[in-house]
Amino acid sequence: MNVIFVLNISKSFQTQIIETKARNEQLVHENINLKKEMEIRPTAQELKFYKHQVKKLEKILKNIKSHESSEEENMKENKEFKKGLGGSQLQEVSRRYLQVLCSIDSIIRSPRRSPLITLMQKKGLGKSWAEEESGFEHLPAVIETWADQLMALKILHQSLKKLFLQLVPWHSKTMQDTNEYIRVEDLQQIVEEISEEVGNKEKKALIPSQQTLYAIVCHFQKLFDVKTLNGVYPRMNEVYTKLG
After folding, report:
1. Residues 154-203: pLDDT tens digits?
2. Is the model's pLDDT at 81 over the cut of 70?
3. Distance, CA of 160 to CA of 167 (rounded, Å)
4. Sign of the C-alpha dihedral, residues 152, 158, 161, 162?
5. Number of domains in the chain
6. What's the rounded Cα separation, in Å, for the pair 119 and 150?
7. Which residues constitute the signal peptide according to the record (predicted)?
8. Of 43, 128, 168, 194, which is least packed with CB atoms within 10 Å of its CB?
9. How many other C-beta atoms lie within 10 A of the C-beta of residue 171?
10. Distance, CA of 82 to CA of 75 (rounded, Å)
């Protein structure tokens, strides 16, 4: 009976060992899988970056949808506009728009605007100007250049005003800020006034000061041994006569 009991205990122990070994192998396998999964999972920084990209893409998609809807609305409005206008009215409107575009294009192509054409060609925006069938595609770029130049004129006007007020601060009332259209003539006027002021200062610099004149008079009084300015010339004449 003791032998049977020992055998049962031994068998039970072996069963427990087998189950424990199987459980350990399963845990090792799960541990390996977890490590692989952790390697595949993004880090916190990567997750933050991905979230930012997702939000960015959602915003782009939203803009695309709104753009598509606005295009559909514009197409719908154009269709309604065409329906509202008769064939002759539509032709008249198109003819007027064509006249306006042709007028703008003729102004741009005028020989007086050759510096503008040169500037546009340097920017690579005037390559198709010589082509007769180029249409009016170049007009937006030209108008944009004009707008930039007008803004540059306004900035230059502000700089010239500052320089002028530094030279002639008592003219501050006549140089008040204005939001009106800046003309080249305004810039020329300021430049001429600055040049005139600089010229006046140079002339004043050539005129000797009172202290300098007094020193010269004292020098000649001492040189010709006279006490007054009136005696300098007679004494000078007398000396030069003797020397001559």
Report:
1. 888 888 888 888 877 666 555 555 556 777 788 888 888 888 877 777 77
2. no
3. 11
4. negative
5. 3
6. 15
7. none
8. 43
9. 13
10. 10
3-state helix/strand/coil string of 84-105: HCCHHHHHHHHHHHHHHHHHHH
Domain range for 236 is: 208-243
| Secondary structure tally for the chain: helices H, strands E | 8, 0
Tell me the torsion sign for CA atoms 7, 12, 16, 22.
positive
- pTM to 2 decimal places: 0.39
In a domain, 235, yes or no: yes
Residues 6+ apart with CB under 8 A from 119: 145
Under a CB-based contact definition with an 8 Å cutoff, are residues 117 and 126 in contact? yes
Q: Which residue has the tokens 């309604």?
A: 80
Q: How many CB atoms lie within 10 A of CB 142?
A: 22
Strand, coil or helix: 130: coil
Number of residues that this document lists for the chain: 244
Q: Are 198 and 212 in a shared domain?
A: no
Tokens of 170: 């008592």
Regarding whether 153 and 200 lie in a shared domain, the answer is: yes
| 111: its two tokens | 């020989």
What is the torsion angle, in degrees rounded to the nearest 10, for the CA atoms of residue 163, residue 168, residue 171 and residue 174? Answer: -30
